[in-house]
Each structure stands twice: as structure tokens, then as C-alpha cells.
Amino acid sequence: MYKTYYVTTPIYYVNDLPHIGTAYTTVVADVLARYHRLKGEKVFFLTGTDEHGQHVARAAERNGVSPQEWADRMVTHFTEVWERLNISNDFFIRTTSPRHAEVARRFIQKLYDKGDIYLDTYEGWYCVPDESFWLPSQLVDGKCPQCGREVEMVQEENYFFRLSAYSDRLLDHIEAHPGFVQPEMRRNEVVSFIKQGLTDQSISRKTITWGIPLPFDESQVMYVWFDALLNYISAIDYGIDDDRFAAIWPADVHLIGKEILRFHAIIWPAMLMAADLPLPRQVFAHGWLTVEGEKMSKSRGNVISPHELIDEYGVDAYRYYFLREFSFGYDGNFSRENMTGRYNADLANALGNMVSRVLAMVERYRGGMVPEASGENDDADSALREAAARVFVEVDAAMGALAFNEALQAIWNYLGSVNRYVDETAAWDLAKDPALEGRLDSVLYNQVEAVRLTALLVLPFMPWTGEGIWSRLGFSDSIYLHHLPAAGAWGLFPPGQTVRKGEPLFPRMERGR
Ligand code: ME8
Fold first, then answer.
1. Residue 229 CA: which ligand 1 atom is closest?
2. Going by C-beta distance under 8 Å and a sequence separation of 6 or more, which residues neighbour residue 188?
3. Which of 205, 273, 365, 422 has the highest local Cβ count within 10 Å?
4. Domain residues of the chain, as ranges?
5. Which tens digit of pLDDT belongs to each residue from 107-125?
6. Does domain 336-488 have CATH number 3.40.50.620?
């Protein structure tokens, strides 16, 4: 049986509204999911919300509602914005769902029965916004080393997970599977952290009530991170439906931000080892986005909502910009000027104009009906075909390496070749000479065929655009019925089909808009 391609995003805390940072990971995951579907693979794409923990409980308290009411209210902000961004997740997990709690309780019971969980006294620091425990030696100027905010003293009897027992197995696994933690610099970080020595982790809280009660001690709730990580297996019915679980697990890739690397590359794999489950194939930690050169934060007041940018630029331009501009894995800076520049150069000009020009010429010279090509190729035709064959290979390699900007560069190089072909073959000159009718037919056909391939290439990144080009090309079926590599072969456009130029895909934008 062919295994389902399984991609996840972190589950987001419901104490804040979604912003361009959370949307970044989600859009990337969506593009990856759509690309694998385009290749005809079965895909399971998971996102959701992390609804327990002290941070959420406090946000609810400040707003005068129960934590559950707060979560119910906040979750709609996530589902709404994901819908607007055309996020095609197959499931949305909420950690307050009964199924999640059931799986989490069964899982922790299993570890307890095995002897991997024991009772001890915890005394140390806790950062509520990050929901992280810290040793006194880890604090920086008495503050959280991760976010720089105040930490609180915690002293209570907790259950601990024997993380230290897994150090060697973790190191062996990372060594044997170089792709497991990526990019490379993150892998090195994880390795040196493990080598410094892992300490057992507190995985329950006694003085908190907002969480999943432990099955073996109902007076304590699960530590929010232990609960949250289990979303990746509760969403696919671990311990409930073994066949379903086996068809989807292990995850092909957990996409995360760099600040939650240790949870995903150390604690989570150790939890899975303790439960005798296979590890995810890859944990990929990306960098952070800054806004006009500054860290995005509430106190700075520079947090950007995806809605704001979608209103200005449109959904597909949004999706394109973040994948094209940032090198996945590294930090990157968002600026409006830069986004407007990319919109005009890449989308309005290179893509939008090319599609309009090609389709307008078919309308002008052949009444919209695409002619048959003569079968003879000159140098320009051959160069175009070669570019078309090359781009699919390049895109596949880049997508396999999660190098989204490289995939888009390859597609835009291809669009450059198509634009060059349009200029060089100059259909407008051929149209002046009746003796060149046959050549004009071939040129028009080739241009349209190049546009068909463009629709498929951009589809995972810009679904509306891919669909929009497809319908302008006169296809009455869904573009989603066509899969790579077969659909990427040259010459599949049916001659005789009628195309229409339609409205511009990306009307030019004035600077400073
Ligand atoms: O950490 N740039 O949730 P969270 C890029 N609930 N990505 C950013 C970003 C930025 N400026 N800000 C946030 C949690 N992100 C836990 C996760 S998973 C089992 C539990 C993205 O709401 C990035 O993916 O704080 C980061 O990892 C995630 O949002 C953190 O979301």
C-alpha cells in the first residue's frame, strides 16, 4: 500500500490572533500538500490549535470568560483566515476535542505502565508565554532565554518523563538519518544540545486545572507541550483506528519555526521511541519573519494580520510573495515596498501579461480557436520545449528539498523563456503574410501549450491563478484531475479548443498602495 504523504504545521496557541508569521508556516505546508496532490499522491495535511496551558487560561481570565469559551471564540479567527488563504488542510485538530484527550491519555498511560514516567519534585522556573521550564543556569539576566520575558518560580510535585534515557538513541537516529532535522545548522544545534546532557522533563502540572487530567493521577493535568505534540498522532486516530494510523504515520515532515525545535527534534522523538512508534521522517525548522526590519511584537504594535495584506494584494500574490521572497529555513524581512515590487514585476508583468498576450493573439488571429501545430520545429520551438521539460525537473528537485524560492525561480525562468519565444516568433509579423499561415498556427499552438504548463506549475503556489488560467484556456474539466508528470508532457493541448483572454490576472499596482 502506498503511504499517504503527511505534512503538519505547529498547532497555534489560541491566546493570540493569527498573523503573517503563523500564516507563513501554514501557507508553506499548503503549497507542499498541494504539490504532492498534483503529483497524484494521497496527502494528509494537518493544522490546528493548541488550546490548553496557562497562557491560554490567563488570556481567558483577562477576558472574563472560561478557557473553553475563549478557545471556541479564538479558533474561528484561525479557521477563517485559513479559508481565505485557500488552505487545503484535510483536518483541523483542536486539543480540547474529546478524541485528542482520549488519545493523549492512552499514550501517557502507556509510558507510565512502561516505567518511563515517575513522580518527583520540580523546582525551577517557568515561562508562561512560551510554556517552557528553565533551569536557573539557563536564564539570561533572570529572564526567559527564549523570549526575554519574566519567568515564574514553580515548586511542585510533578510527573517526569525519562528523557535522559533516550540521549544515545536520539543521537544515533540523527546520525543515521541526516535528513531528520533540517536545515543543517538546526541539526547541529540539536546534536550539541543533546551532547550537553538531557535532563528528565516535567510533564504535568499540579496547580493548574486547564489541561488534560492524567489517567493515573486525576489531580494533575498534562503539561501543555506533552499534550500538544500528541496532536500529530491523535488527529490520525492513534490507538483508535490502527489501519488508518498505519496508512498515514510517520509524518513526512513537521514544519515548525526555529524556536520550537527542541520540542520537535528531541522531546517528541523520545516520546515516540518510548511508545515504540516510528519517528517522523523530517523536522524542518524555518526562520523568523521580521517586519520592516523589526521583530514583530504586540508591544511594538507592528503585528500584521494576513487579512490586511490579502485585502491589498489578493490571496495568490500573498502566497507567492512569502514563498518567493524568503529562503525557507532562514530569517527574512517583510516590507510593503518589496511586496509591491514583486507583485508588479513577477505577477503583473512576467506572468499576467504573458498569459494575456498569448490568449489575445489567439483571439485576434484565430477567433479564439487554437490551431494545430504544423509538426515542424525551428530553433525557437525546440528551445521552448526544452525549457518546458527542464522546469518540471527543476521544480521537483527544489520541492523535494523544500527550497520553495528555488522552485519559483525555476518557474519564472521558464516564464522568461516563454516571453522570449513570444517576442522572437513575433506572431504579429507572421499574421501580415498569408504565406506564413502555417507557421503562425504553430507559434500560436506552442504559446498556448506553454500557458497550459504554466497553469500546472503555479497551481500549488497560487491555486486561484492556476484554476483561472485553466478556465481561460477553455478546459471544462477541473485542473485537479490532471497529475504530474503525465500532464507536464508537451503537446497535450487539444487543437480546436476555444480560449478567451478574460480579465487581467494581476492588474498592475501603483507603488505605495
Ligand atoms: O509555539 N516568523 O504556538 P505559536 C515565522 N502552540 N514564523 C512564525 C513567526 C514569525 N515571526 N511567529 C510565529 C506554539 N511563527 C505551540 C506549538 S506544536 C505541537 C505547538 C510560526 O502560536 C512558527 O511556525 O506560538 C512558529 O513555530 C509558530 O508560529 C508558533 O506558534
1. 19
2. none
3. 205
4. 336-488
5. 999 999 999 999 999 888 9
6. no
